[in-house]
Every structure is written in structure tokens, then in C-alpha cells.
Specification:
heterodimer, A: Rossmann fold, 11 strands, 34% helix, 21% strand, globular, B: Growth Hormone, Chain: A, Growth Hormone, Chain: A, eight-stranded mixed beta sheet, 12 strands
């Protein structure tokens, strides 16, 4: 092969994969056992989990990675509720990373990963913690601002039937919607719980509101007032602040006093509890060998 | 027809012009690449790449030193080859580098990014290698007239440096490479003119046309970018909005300015969350996005109708207007105009507003779109515009104000993923704050708002310390009733200072406003603070980075590890006893309160010593919101760089210094290793000569770069300061070099005096130049530039003597290898010096930088005698 055509061909392929809706198919493309609320992946041993996932039709290699990351999440207390644990174990991150061949096999790393359009797929520790902090109950309405790779809403879809997500970048929003649809066809029917649209998330989704929980996954210089308006009293909103990989997550709680007055309070979901920060675990190849704090 | 020109004996004028233009083209290329990095990705990575690319000089010198005989025999071919390659290489390598952009934010997480950075380095290294080869061979052949050639080199570099800055008005950043290309073409043509080589002239013109064609035609033809702007730069997001329109674009030395309109742009910097429940309507499409070098956005605010102005009440810069009716207001920096709009719409009787960036003023004054959008704000009869730094104006005006506002002078303030460049922030120094405080009428209020988006807090702690110190300068010891401070977590912090002190009624009004905004009170006279929390907070912040615990073992969870306390809602999280939701406890907010407690009552220094980051105050000597990592902790962060991403700009300086030192020593020692017993065997004073040129390399660049930072004090703009300093220093030194030839025979007696004079002038400047620059800053701009040039003339002129005197001496003594080696040492240590300046400046202050330069020249004094030692005759030198 001529080097020039090889190089330009590679470039073209990767730029297509990043910019267009074309997706890399995971190696293991069997049909997945459809979702039901009764699906309960085992949490006792790695072997049992992989065997269970395999019977659902998933790739054992990624199942192993998912289990290892799950253990790291537990360890760092980024995840603790049974429903969030279930959501994590049911969500195929690799499918969402498949949009960029360069990151496909790195889906379970702690790192944030490039998915094109100047957007990253956040790491599992941050997403795990954000998901668990808002403590979604079945039936609750949850709005996500910034669909991005789609993986955050995928977690929500395992927690409630009412997940809403908005993406501002049209080609990215369209690509992720196409991915959800493809995954639904494949058997991941839980993603039917996700209603998505391409719009300016600043204004929220008024027709669908009010929401019990809101997750904002994009940076801004203030909390958008329309979102606070669409948040129910007693609701919680989480917003990451800062650059990818070093984000602090702001938790805004909306409370209504006995006199009807509405107030908000801010804290950090890591705040009050300063923690060794993302990425907590240290990888050596594919193995977690310790912390960065040693 | 070719003619032979003896470069040692009266070469033609065209030769000198050629040297000047090609040397200038090298400088222009450096500046051009820096601009490309600033606009496309990260400026400080540009510095790294350019610094290392300058090792082209070191490598050329080392190779020429080892293979001197070959170069002497083939010098004409070598020059011609280097010259013909230089232009096309700069174009092709630049285009190629744009096709392998790297993303600083993935530098740690994606192994490929390191290779992309390396590819950028290699690509940009190649043209410098060609340029350095040209100059190296020229110097080799013109040893005996070195001072004149060096004069041409310096003056050419200086003037061309200035010309490329002017070229920034003509060429947008993606075409700026044309500036060095044109200079190279002119220099190349003149070279062939000097040698009467018509075929050479035709060839280089052809190559130039081809290079320009490649730059302009290849990108559209191949569908590749001329300048790849990272997807992660602010402007890239704006460009993706469906209704985005660029309404203004202007390239100038003050930056590449773009303004975008889109309904997707939303600004309300630091806005209270309560606005959502109290404002009927948020102003729609109220902002345009303003981007400088693709960074931003800063919001340009529309002239809001009266029914929408209640919105301003919810912004932190509204605070002083809670207490002041119809004030006379001074806005220190116009920026996108938010503070000015707040001042006007909150009832100011008159607003004086300063802006130090002429490009911003030009845009707002001349662009019809911006004028309509902002209601032609700069021509509002209530407004007086000061077209230079507000800091300088305030320091010297006799006028006094009810309100002085300095709010969010920088862009959106979202943390920068690839780190920040180390830039001087003279508007926030202790001296500037004192000036603002003194410019207040009795009872006047200074309001300073800063982004508070760091966790652990860094900038705000520096601001608090700086303002408390400034208040003590103005008011003496007791400042307890002079301040009122609020913050909003991960948003903004506002410090209010009142001349004469706040009354209890003032504090009651401010406290009510704070409650209505749901902001956090950080300091108010009499606010009670629980100091028992301090030790744990300091420890926790340290543990966040340096916790020493058991390693994470994913298969065996243990209660001992990790040190995380569970997040809110998790089992084990603190709940209030009555079952009510726990009150948010935000360590950063508590630390802010503790900081003020110790600033007012004394004892902050001890706390600062124990805090994980450096929170020293900003002064005119250390005007940096940067370098928060304490030097003693630097090595501890090497395996956790991702936790301090916004410090990468600072860490890169250390990396540059480290890599530069290794490179420099390797290149300098290469000829020594190969030739200590052969090439250098009969050269006495080798060590002394090395020290001499090392000192000159370090000293010159340290003074130049250090002075650029200093002179911003008067010139208030980094670009102008750099151009004035580079041009001034190089031209004056060039003249010094030219004059030095006359004293060559008396070098032994003259040079010690020159060194002593340089040392004394620089040492004097180190401690006094601030005062001169501060005073000069108030004069008309042209006069300021003239005074700055006058100030640098004496040291720069004298600093032009040592290099050519020593080089010509080496040439005349027949120490040819050492001549080449010395040139390389000088070049290599220049790179080290340039990296050293910001590190010394952030750690010890700018006077220390100039003083370091002074001492380099003092050490060079005795070393000069080593240069004068004649060759020993016992053993023949190897060729």
C-alpha cells in the first residue's frame, strides 16, 4: 500500500467516524435479550456477572471491564445505591464509545474520552457519582442537558421511564439518537425510555417539565434560570464546572419554605467531603493497580 | 554568473541586508508560530515548541563544529541549500503541523497526543534548522568581520520583528506565515544579488511563488485546514451553533478578534440563582459573543430596554449600587461592556471607563453592527472613555469617584482545560488596588469581582490577601470595618471596600441583598467564624492531592481505603439530627471566611504556609494569578498532573526548562566529547570560554524577556511591550555591536568597564525601573514608547559589545572550532534563559529576573580573559 494513500485513508476514516453518523460495530454483535425492570445482574462475583451478561448477549471482554470498573466505583464510593449499581452494570459503555474507533476499547477507563465536536464522554467515576447523587426513583422525570455520547441518559434510562435529553450540536444529537435507535433494535429496549431532541438546552424542555431531577453536562457561567424554573420544589440539579477530567460537580437544591418562598443552595457533590479526585484509580495496561495518591 | 565574495573583506551591502532579512525572517517565523498556536490551540504549548525548535541553532553549531572542514570547503553550496530550503520548509511544515493537531486536554489520557506534540516539534524544528544553517555558515565565513555581520543580524531581527507585528494588521493568523516567507524571499534575493547569481535569483523567486501557491491552493484543493482551530477552543462551539453568524472580524497585533451572534449564546456572569424565581423575563438575545484568539466568549451586552434592566440586580457587580445613588463611577476595564451597562442602568450620574486594548475600542467605536447593538455605548454623553489602562489612569488622576469597579475583566472564566499561559495581571496588584482605593471619594466603594470556579480555591485567596494588604497600605492597621465580601460557590466572589468604613446600616442593607440573592456572606464586620475547622480543611485539601493510604484493590474493598467521605445522600453522610436536609457545608466557602478572619485579625501567613497551594499576594513585581503549585511540591505532582490541569501552563515552563537544559547540555558537550583531545586540544581557557558564552546567552535573553514583562507596566499591552522591547533591544545592541569593532584592540581594558557598567545599570533598573515606568504610563502613548526605548538604550547598547568582541577575538586568534562552539552555547543557553524567566518571576519577582541578568554579565567579566588566551603552539589542532 502506498504510504500516502494509507495515511490519507486513515485520516479520512477517522474523521468520518467522528463527524458522521457511521458507527463502529462492536466485535460481538449478537442480539441482546430485551430489557425489563426485572433484569438483575449479579453483584456477587465477576464470573457470575460475566456469565449473566453473556447470556444477555453481551461481549465477555467488555463485561469483565465493566465489572472491574464497577469495583473501582464501589471502592471510591462513587456508586452505592442498589438501583444505580444495577444501572451501571446494565449499561454498555462500549456501545457509546463506538462512535470513535480510537476510544472504542477504552470505554471503561476512568478517563474522559474524545467523541468529536469538541465534546468528551465523561469518565465512569464522575457519571456514577452524579447519577447516584440525584438518586432517581422509578417514575421520576429527569432532564439531561447535553446528550453528548448518550451514556449519561443511558444510565438514567435504567432508573426511570422518563428520561429527557437535549443536545445543542445538531449532528451530535442526531448521531446519538441514531445510536439509541440502533441499540433499541439490538435489544437494549431500555433506551426507549429516552426522549431526545436537538435544541438549546438553556431553555430546558418546558412542555415536558417540571422535572424531579436535572443533570447538566455542559459548562456555562451561570445556572440557567429556565432550568431552575422547570425544577420541582425539592428537586436537585447537578452541574459540572471546570475542564474535562478535572470537574467539580455543583449540586443546586431548590427548596420551598413554609411561606412559599423559594430558595436555592449550592454545594459540591464532592464538597463537604474533599476527596482524592478523578481519576482516582491508576491503570497499568488494563489493570487497576492502585491510586494516583500513592 | 557567480562571483566570489570574500566575506571577511568588505562584502557588499546586499550581503548584510540578506543576513538581516533572513535573521528577521527567523524571528518572524517564531512570532508567526506563536500566533498560530494562540489562535488554534494553546499559546504556552506554542512557546514550548518554538523554544525547542530554536535548538536548530545549537544542533547546527554542534554539527558544524565537528565537521568544520567540510563546511569550509562547501560553504557556498551549504548556504544556498539552506536558503532555498528555508522558505518552502516553513510553509510545508506549518501546513503539515496543522494536519496533526494535538489536544492538550488529552495529553495525559490519550497516548497518541504525545506523539502529535512530538510531530509538531519535529515539523517546526525543520525550518529553524535551515535558517540556523544559513546563519551559521555565514558567521563561519565572516569571522573577522563578525561585529558587522552580527550588527546586520541583530538590527535585521529587531526591525523585522516589528514588521511582523505590523503584518498582523494585514494577514489573518492563518496567513501570517506569509510575513516570514516574504522576508525570507527578500533576504534570499539579496544574497544572490550579492553574488551576482542570476540563476539563483530566478530559482528562489520560483521557489517562493511555489511555496505561496502551496499555502493558498493546497488547503482548499485537499480539503485540509490552513490553521486547525481545536474543537475545544471557545470559538469552535460558537461556530457550531445553527444560527451563528460572525458579525465582526479584525486581525491586529492586539489579537485576532471575532464577534459572533447566536440565540444560543447566554451570559449572566455570576448571576444569582434567585433570578429564576423573581425575574419575569430574562432578556433574550441580550449578548454577542466576543472571542480573542479563539478564546472566549466574553459577553457584549445589548442596550437593554428599561423593563429588562432589573436583570442587572442579580449580577454580582450590582453590589455597590445597593448603597450608592447617582454615583460617579469608574470602570477599570470595559471588556464586553457589562460593568459599564450595569453602571449606566443603575443610575450612575457619570461613568468613566478605561480600556487598554485598542482593538476593543476600535470595534465598539467603528463597527456599525456593534454600535447599534450596544446603543453606541462609548458615545453615550454620560460616558468618558480612557483609552489606556484604568490602573494607570486612576493612579495619576486627581478626580475622585463614588464607585470604582473591576469586574470579571477576563472572559467567561470557565477553567481552561489546557492550562493558562503565565500572563501579567497588573490590574489586580497590591499597588493597583491601593490606587483604586485612593481614587475613591470619602465613603466611596471599590468593588472587585473575580471568578470563583476553582476547588480548592486559588485565585480568590490571592485576591483576598492582595486587597487586605492594599487596604493596610491606604488605611493603616485597622481594616475591620472596611470590607464586605460575598461569594457564590463555583461562580464568583465579590470584595467591597469602603473608604472610611461601612456603617452598620450599610452592612444591614448589603446583608439583606446577599440573602435575597442566595449568595454566601464571606466577610462582614463582626461576622463570627469558627476557627476550629481550619486544621481539618487544610488537611483535607492537602489529602485531595497527597493522601497516603492503602492502594485501591478492586477485588478487596477495605474500610481503611480510600479516604473518601461519602457524598451527600450516601450511607454514612452527615444528616441533621432532626431529619431535616443537612446544611450544605462547603469547605471553599468556609476557607474564604477563615481567610478573611486571619487577614483582619492577623495570622494568615501561617495558614497560607500550610495551605496546599501558593496564595501570595499580587504585586507589581509578581503580578500573577498563576504558579499556585509550591515549588517544594512540584515533583509530587508529576504522577497526578490531571488533577491540576489549569496549572499546566506553569508546569510546562518547568518541563521546557528541564528539556531545554538536557538538550542544551547535550549539544554543548557533543563537540567536547568528540573533540576534547583533538579539536579543542590546543585551545586554552575552554571552561572559561564556555562560562563566558553561557553567561551571555542567559544574560541577554533574561534581560530581554524580563524587561518585556516589566514594560507592560507602562505600555499596558503584552504585544506592544514585546515589540518595543525586541526591536529596541536588538537594534540598540546591533549598534553596540557595530561600535564595538572600534574598541577591539583595547578589549582587554575596555570590556571590564563595559561589563561593570552593564551590571550597575541593570542592578539599578531592577529596583527602580518600576517607578519610571509607572510615571511614564500616564503620558501620551507615543511618548511612552519613546521613553521606554530611551530606558532600554543604555543597557541594550552596552550589551551589544560582549558577543561580537569575543567572537571576533576567537576568529582572529584562529580558534575556529571554539568560534562555532561558542555560537551554539550562546544559542542553547538563550533557550534556557527564556524558560527560566517566568519561573524566576513567579517565584521571586521581576526584579530578581533583571538582577539575575545583571549577575550573568558580572560573571562574564573574569571569564572574558579566557577568551583572550591565544592558541598554544606545542600541539597542532586537528582539522
Amino acid at each position: 500500500m502506498k504510504r500516502r494513500s494509507f495515511v490519507s485513508g486513515t485520516l479520512a476514516a477517522s474523521s468520518l467516524a467522528l463527524a458522521g453518523p457511521s458507527l463502529v460495530s462492536p466485535a460481538f454483535a449478537a442480539t441482546i435479550k430485551p430489557y425489563s425492570w426485572d433484569l438483575n445482574p449479579p453483584t456477587d462475583t465477576r464470573e457470575n456477572f460475566i456469565a449473566w451478561g453473556k447470556s444477555r448477549g453481551e461481549d465477555p471482554m467488555f463485561l469483565g471491564q465493566r465489572w472491574d470498573r464497577f469495583q473501582a466505583l464501589l471502592k471510591n464510593k462513587d456508586i452505592w445505591g442498589a438501583t444505580t449499581i444495577r444501572a451501571f452494570l446494565l449499561t454498555p459503555r462500549e456501545e457509546f464509545a463506538s462512535v470513535n474507533p480510537a476510544i472504542y476499547k477504552r470505554a471503561y477507563e476512568h478517563n474522559f474520552l474524545d467523541i468529536g465536536y469538541g465534546v468528551t464522554m465523561s469518565g465512569p467515576h464522575l457519571q456514577g457519582r452524579m447519577t447516584n447523587v440525584i438518586d432517581v426513583k422509578r417514575g421520576e422525570k429527569v432532564l439531561e442537558i447535553g446528550t453528548g455520547s448518550g451514556v449519561q441518559s443511558a444510565y438514567i434510562a435504567n432508573l426511570t421511564e422518563n428520561a429527557y435529553t437535549i443536545e445543542i450540536i445538531k449532528p451530535l444529537g442526531d448521531r446519538t439518537r441514531a445510536l439509541y435507535d440502533k441499540l433499541i433494535e439490538k435489544g437494549y429496549t431500555e433506551f426507549k425510555h429516552i426522549k431526545s431532541k436537538v435544541a438549546d438546552g438553556y431553555y430546558g424542555w418546558e412542555e415536558a417539565g417540571p422535572f424531579d431531577k436535572i443533570i447538566v453536562t455542559c459548562g456555562i457561567d451561570h445556572v440557567p434560570p429556565p432550568l431552575l424554573q422547570q425544577l420541582k420544589a425539592g428537586g436537585v440539579m447537578v452541574i459540572p464546572v471546570g475542564p474535562p477530567g478535572a470537574q467539580r460537580v455543583l449540586k443546586v437544591a431548590k427548596t420551598q419554605g413554609a411561606d412559599g418562598s423559594i430558595t436555592t443552595s449550592r454545594e459540591d457533590i464532592y464538597g463537604g467531603k474533599i476527596v482524592p479526585f478523578v481519576p482516582f484509580t491508576k491503570l497499568d495496561g488494563d489493570k487497576i493497580v492502585g491510586t494516583h495518591n500513592r | 554568473m557567480n562571483v566570489t565574495v570574500d566575506l571577511d573583506n568588505r562584502p557588499p551591502l546586499a550581503f548584510y541586508l540578506s543576513v538581516g532579512l533572513v535573521a528577521g525572517s527567523i524571528i518572524a517565523l517564531q512570532i508567526g508560530i506563536m500566533r498560530v498556536f494562540s489562535v488554534g490551540s494553546w499559546a504556552h504549548f506554542g512557546s514550548l515548541v518554538v523554544s525547542l525548535a530554536m535548538f536548530g541553532f545549537g544542533l547546527t553549531s554542534a554539527v558544524m563544529c565537528v565537521a568544520k572542514g567540510w563546511f569550509e570547503r562547501h560553504w557556498e553550496g551549504a548556504v544556498k541549500g539552506a536558503l532555498l530550503a528555508f522558505g518552502p520548509l516553513m510553509v510545508v511544515c506549518n501546513l503539515a503541523a496543522q494536519q496533526v493537531p494535538f489536544n492538550a486536554i488529552f495529553l495525559i489520557s490519550d497516548p497518541m497526543q504525545k506523539w502529535r506534540l512530538f510531530a509538531n516539534f519535529v515539523l517546526y524544528f525543520l525550518p529553524f534548522l535551515a535558517g540556523a544553517l544559513y546563519l551559521g555558515v555565514v558567521f563561519l565565513k565572516a569571522q573577522k568581520t563578525f561585529s558587522r555581520v552580527y550588527f546586520a543580524d541583530l538590527v535585521g531581527s529587531g526591525l523585522c520583528g516589528l514588521s511582523v507585528l505590523l503584518a498582523m494588521y494585514v494577514f489573518a493568523p492563518d496567513d501570517l506565515i506569509m510575513a516570514p516567507l516574504l522576508l525570507w524571499l527578500a533576504g534570499g534575493v539579496l544574497w544572490f544579488v550579492a553574488f551576482n547569481d542570476r540563476r539563483g535569483i530566478a530559482t528562489i523567486v520560483g521557489v517562493a511563488v511555489l511555496s505561496a501557491l502551496v499555502h493558498h491552493v493546497a488547503p482548499p484543493l485537499l480539503g485540509i485546514p490552513k490553521l486547525a482551530v481545536s474543537d475545544y477552543k471557545g470559538v469552535s462551539y460558537a461556530r457550531k451553533f445553527p444560527d451563528a453568524q460572525r458579525t465582526y472580524e479584525r486581525a491586529s497585533p492586539f489579537g485576532y478578534m471575532e464577534v459572533y451572534s447566536s440565540s444560543y449564546l447566554h451570559f449572566a456572569p455570576g448571576q444569582s440563582d434567585n433570578a429564576a424565581f423573581n425575574l419575569k423575563n430574562m432578556p433574550a438575545n441580550a449578548y454577542l459573543g466576543f472571542y480573542l484568539d479563539s478564546e472566549g466568549p466574553s459577553g457584549i451586552i445589548k442596550d437593554l430596554p428599561a423593563e429588562e434592566t432589573p436583570y442587572f440586580r442579580y449580577l454580582p457587580m450590582f453590589y455597590p449600587y445597593v448603597l450608592k445613588q447617582a454615583p460617579e463611577t469608574f470602570v477599570v476595564q470595559f471588556g464586553g461592556g457589562i460593568s459599564t451597562a450595569v453602571a449606566l442602568k443603575s443610575g450612575s450620574s457619570h461613568v468613566t471607563v478605561a480600556e487598554g486594548n485598542p482593538a476593543v475600542l476600535t470595534a465598539f467605536r467603528e463597527d456599525p453592527g456593534l454600535r447599534t447593538f450596544t446603543g453606541d455605548v462609548l458615545r453615550n454623553p454620560k460616558i468618558t472613555v480612557i483609552d489606556y489602562d484604568g490602573r494607570l489612569f486612576v493612579a495619576h488622576t486627581k478626580k475622585r469617584y463614588d464607585i470604582v469597579d473591576l469586574s470579571l475583566a477576563d472572559s467567561a472564566g470557565l477553567s481552561s482545560p489546557g492550562g493558562f499561559s503565565i500572563v501579567e495581571k497588573y490590574s489586580y496588584t497590591r499597588e493597583a488596588m491601593s490606587a483604586y482605593m485612593r481614587a475613591l471619594k470619602d465613603g466611596g466603594i471599590l468593588s472587585v469581582t473575580l471568578w470563583n470556579k476553582e476547588e480548592p480555591p486559588k485565585s480568590v485567596l490571592k485576591l483576598y490577601a492582595t486587597m487586605a494588604a492594599a487596604a493596610r497600605d491606604v488605611d493603616g492597621g485597622n481594616i475591620a470595618n472596611k470590607f464586605y465580601v460575598v461569594s457564590s460557590y463555583l461562580s464568583t466572589a465579590t470584595v467591597l471596600y469602603k473608604r472610611g468604613g461601612f456603617t452598620p446600616e450599610d452592612i444591614a442593607k448589603l446583608a439583606a441583598h446577599t440573602k435575597a440573592m442566595s449568595f454566601d456572606e464571606i466577610y462582614a464586620p463582626g461576622l463570627k467564624v469558627d476557627t476550629t475547622e481550619l486544621a481539618q480543611i487544610l488537611q483535607d485539601y492537602r489529602d485531595q492531592f497527597f493522601f497516603q493510604g492503602e492502594p485501591a484493590d478492586p477485588t478487596a474493598p477495605s474500610e481503611k481505603e480510600p479516604n473518601d467521605k461519602p457524598p451527600p445522600g450516601a450511607p454514612g453522610a452527615t444528616e441533621a439530627k432532626d431529619g431535616a436536609p443537612p446544611v450544605p457545608r462547603v469547605p471553599a466557602t468556609v476557607l474564604g471566611r477563615l481567610a478573611w478572619h486571619y487577614h483582619i485579625n492577623g495570622g494568615w501567613q501561617k495558614v497560607a504556609d500550610e495551605y496546599v497551594f501558593d496564595t501570595r499576594i499580587l504585586t507589581n513585581h509578581q503580578p500573577y494569578f498563576a504558579a499556585y503549585i509550591k515549588v517544594k511540591d512540584l515533583l509530587k505532582f508529576t504522577d497526578r498532573l490531571e488533577t491540576v490541569q489549569d496549572e499546566w501552563g506553569y508546569l510546562l515552563l518547568w518541563a521546557t526548562l528541564g528539556i531545554a537544559t538536557i538538550f542544551a547540555l547535550t549539544l554543548v558537550l557533543l563537540p567536547v566529547v568528540f573533540g576534547w583531545r583533538t579539536i579543542f586540544s590546543r585551545y586554552p581557557g575552554k571552561a572559561g570560554t564556555m562560562v563566558y558564552f553561557l553567561c551571555l546567552g542567559l544574560g541577554y535573553i533574561i534581560v530581554e524577556v524580563g524587561m518585556i514583562s516589566h514594560f507592560i507596566l507602562a505600555l499596558s499591552n503584552a504585544t506592544v511591550s514585546a515589540s518595543v522591547l525586541i526591536t529596541g533591544m536588538l537594534v540598540f545592541s546591533g549598534i553596540g555591536s557595530f561600535v564595538s569593532e572600534r574598541y577591539l584592540d583595547r578589549a582587554r581594558t575596555i570590556m571590564p568597564r563595559i561589563f561593570a557598567a552593564i551590571f550597575l545599570i541593570l542592578a539599578f533598573y531592577a529596583f527602580t525601573i518600576d517607578y519610571a515606568l509607572d510615571w511614564a504610563g500616564t503620558l501620551p502613548y507615543a511618548l511612552r514608547i519613546a521613553i521606554c526605548l530611551l530606558l532600554i538604550l543604555p543597557p541594550a547598547f552596552l550589551m551589544g559589545f560582549p558577543m561580537p568582541t569575543a567572537m571576533t577575538t576567537l576568529g582572529r586568534l584562529g580558534k575556529d572550532h571554539m568560534f562555532l562552539w561558542a555560537w551554539g552555547i550562546n544559542g542553547c543557553f538563550s533557550v534556557i534563559g527564556a524558560a527560566l524567566v517566568p519561573i524566576v518571576a513567579t517565584s521571586f519577582g521581576l526584579p530578581a529576573v533583571v538582577l539575575m541578568g545583571a549577575f550573568a554579565y558580572l560573571i562574564a567579566l573574569p571569564a572574558f580573559y579566557s577568551v583572550l588566551m591565544p592558541l598554544t603552539k606545542e600541539r597542532p589542532a586537528a582539522a
